[in-house]
Amino acid sequence: MKTLRTEVAVIGAGTAGMTGYRAAKAGGKQTLLIESNVYGTTCARVGCMPSKLLISAADAAHMLHVAPRFGVSPGQVRINGKAVMERVRSERDRFVGFVVESVDGYPAEDKLHGHARFISPTQLQIGDHTLVEAERFVIATGSTPIVPDEWRAAGPRVISSDAVFDWDDLPESVAVAGTGVIGLELGQALARLGVRVTIFGRGGSVAQLSDPEVLQVARRAMTDELDVRFKTKVVDVAPQSNGLGVIVTSEDANGKQHTEQFAYLLSAIGRRPNVHKLGLENTGLQRDHQGIPLYDPHTMQCGDSHIFIAGDANNERPQLPEAADHGRIAGDNAARYPDVQPGLRRTPLAITFTEPQIATMGSSYSELCVSHAGRFAIGKVSFENQGRSRVMLQNKGMLRVYAEYATGRFLGAEMIGPRAENIGHLLSWAVQAGLTVEAMLDMPFYHPVVEEGVRTALRDLAHHLQHEPAHDCPCVDCTPAP
């Protein structure tokens, strides 16, 4: 076994790892990038980019479906599943190629392939071939989709989202477990492309939403179009006798069970940080109940150690922009250690590319019920009768906006509705800039645009700010659950 010595070792070559590597190198440190799998980020290979390719195909099919409502009759619509998936895979491979090309540009001596495991606070063993001794480390090992063992036992027709983008054709049917971002995005896209889809949700959650009024509107919007079964859990999965599908048994809130056959069961119940095979028990780091090292979210430093953690591995905000920021902060601080400094943490922004789109920005309703209980006002707008939304036949959804009573400072928003990806950016910028509601209402609003709905919500919010109740809390329940 050979031994390598370096100043900084970065474990994982995804978005966080590559950004961390570049930051540490920019800090003037000798840096080694270690990867156990193929190069290519989760986003490019199995995440945001291939999913948007599938969603774009679904949007094209949906527009043809609703065209007659505009007085336009496109004729017979035929969806070529093989052609759809060929484009998804081809463009996916193109995006992955850009990432691989970037990694190929790194010096050969800076790259090492194999599974890394701590054997001491300053040593990694890579596979069975290399010992790495380093002064500082960045853990950027990403995450893995969760597929329960009892489901996986039903065979290869039980999959995670990773497998969807390797299909060479669209299946006849798919059961989706989970009403989070991945389950709803892929479930709706597949349904719009002609696949029979049923989505099971153990509770009543919809993507990242926490505001009860927005949630209610979102559930209605999803069930209007899709076979979404809230408060229904998958209790058994078995293989079909011919091996060409699965038999799924579900149970609703009343205890009634229902058994159906599908070509696939897609597990979209979450992702697990890849920290359990890193030998973290040999680092001396304090860890939480999930095995993730305790760390400072402003510096990415684990305790007061020379080890930093970034991206999906720390399970804070599993999104590409956050992973890049985490990696930059971690790599910069690994280079400057022990002179660790807080890095730039941006205002939270999360977008789900369903239709209607879903966005949360700044502080969420549930967070404000903890941090500002009784001290924040709410304004809202429905998109049902909003002018531009009706013009586009996209008049579904609701926006709720939040501000602090004492200062009028804008705190955040949650929404489901048209153009949420654009509105989300505008409102998150307002939060980060520290704008008041009054200052936001002084901004220009054109006509007719969806953003006029934002103005309506802000005007409602301004009204509530002027009439602070004496003893009222807008939270449905700000106390912990029993």
Give a structural overview.
It is a single chain. By secondary structure, this protein is of the alpha/beta class. It has three domains: 2-144 and 272-336, FAD/NAD(P)-binding domain, CATH 3.50.50; 149-269, 3-Layer(bba) Sandwich (FAD/NAD(P)-binding domain), CATH 3.50.50.60; 349-465, 2-Layer Sandwich (Enolase-like, domain 1), CATH 3.30.390.30. The protein contains 14 helices and 22 strands. The strands form five sheets. Strands 1, 2, 3, 4, 5, 6 and 17 form a seven-stranded mixed sheet that branches. Strands 8-15-9-10-11 form a five-stranded parallel sheet. Strands 18-19-22-21-20 form a five-stranded antiparallel sheet, sandwiched between helices. Helix 8 links the parallel strand 10 and strand 11. Helix 1 (15-26) packs parallel to helix 9 and helix 3 (48-66) crosses helix 7. The longest helix is centred in the first third of the chain and has 24 residues, at 81-104. It starts with a strand and ends in a 17-residue tail after the last helix. Mean pLDDT is 94; it is low at 478-482.
Keywords:
482 residues; FAD/NAD(P)-binding domain; alpha/beta; 14 helices; 3 domains; Enolase-like, domain 1; five-stranded parallel sheet
